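sorry for the late reply, my laptop died twice this morning and i had to redo everyting from scratch. anyway the thing you sent over, i finally got around to it. pasting the sequence first so we're on the same page, its 502 residues, then the predicted structure underneath. double check i copied it right bc i was rushing
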Amino acid sequence: MCQVEEDYNGLECNQEKIPVPTLNRKCVKCKEGTAVLIIRVNDAFCRSCFKEYFIHKFRAMLGKNRVIFPQEKVLLAVSGGAASCSMLSQVQEGLSREASKKLRFVPGIIYIDDGGACGRSAEERQRSNAQLKSIFTETGFSYFIVPLEQVFSLPTSVLVPGTSDPDPSNPSYKQVVDQYIKEKQTLTEKNVASSVAQLSIEDSVYSPEHKLALQRLFSSLKTLTAKEDMLQTLRQHLILHVARENGYSKVMMGDSCSRLAVKLLSNIALGRGAALASDTGFSDPRYGDVVIVRPMRDYSSKEIAFYSRMFNVPSVFISGLDTKTHDKASIQRLTESFVTNLQADFPSTVSTIYRTSEKLHTVMPSQSQTAEPASKCLLCLCTLDTKVDKASAFHATLVSEQLSQIKLQDPCLDAPAQSAEQCCTEGQGCGPGGCCSSNRLPSHQDLKTLLCYSCRLTIKDMVATDALPPYIITEAEKRQKRSRMKMEISEYLLEDDEEDGD
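ok and here's the structure:
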């Protein structure tokens, strides 16, 4: 048995120990300044070198991917947290630098006030909006503060993917930069200053009807997992609408490396494995004319917290759906707790998961830009991963659910001798779905054919699908009518071919 004080006959166990971080360490970059923070075991930085490291990381991410053109309008999605506010600070830093290293796009800011879905009071929403408005005003950028209730007044065109521009990574990118430099040389400093000073501020208000409709929508969702997924979908639709309405072709999200690691694992658990490359990659081109970019995906939450603390980056804490909830309240919350606790004991956890997400690539069809809207999910606009004609398991599950719902709704199914008039007279088959003779299915069954697997699970947790915003219901009806027309045309052509054969 091993003993605490065991005699090794004079032999000492010489094991290499990991050096304990001390305050007397030198900066790994300049080798002169005293380190004020340690990101990893061997990465100690002084104050000035850490700032240059942080700024270079942001600019290197944009320069490596080359998806943003000069003079292009870019919308910064700011939630008030440390990551998105640090992204806003980096854009300010890049625009204020010298001409040779200056960012060349035109930024704007958007904040989605989701207090109606998260249960915040009107006073809390006004207070957080005022704090964010003061931060946005100091930047000098155009900003939009839009309440989530505005989703009930969105047009159906939000769910129709727009036509995308050519790939920015082709050789024409250099031509655009050269053209921008030539145009910049002809402008005077006065014109440049006047163009930056022009602001367009939009602070929307919500109506009481929309507020009640939003509360009804989230109260119809039974689980917190479905509520968080629906909130993310509606927030994305609203950002997409504001970007298109104001001419923004790119949207910057403040997702950090730690956040993307949690998102990758939670999306796998939610059944969004087919859309991982779009949900966690640097660029997300699923919307066509508006591309989502994530320039903060190389930063860990520790780096962002250090930078915000040391350089006084203003941020606002805003409670969400998962605030003050236990670890098992939702799949997203459980995954976050799992990754955070594992990261504390194994520091390479987040980086390992993140490097896995970097290797994922979206397989885009050759005609993806002109694809019909019916080939994409109604809610998340990803390519449908539930092909009924190719996946027999989905087909069998769908048929069994339809038969069970028909039996529950139509009591005359087991009594074919009874007429429909007698059934309706006795009041046995008339329900919320209409007359029993019509064999109409519940609305969530109709929506299933238009959704991907993950969004099907979200709709399945809804008590009443009529609580969805009108633009979603209208687009669903359009797609269903278009599908029925195609089926009728194909059946008609098939009958004509059979008659010609006879």
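The beta strands are 37-40, 43-45, 73-77, 106-113, 142-147, 201-203, 250-252, 283-284, 291-293.
thats about all i looked at so far, will dig more tmrw
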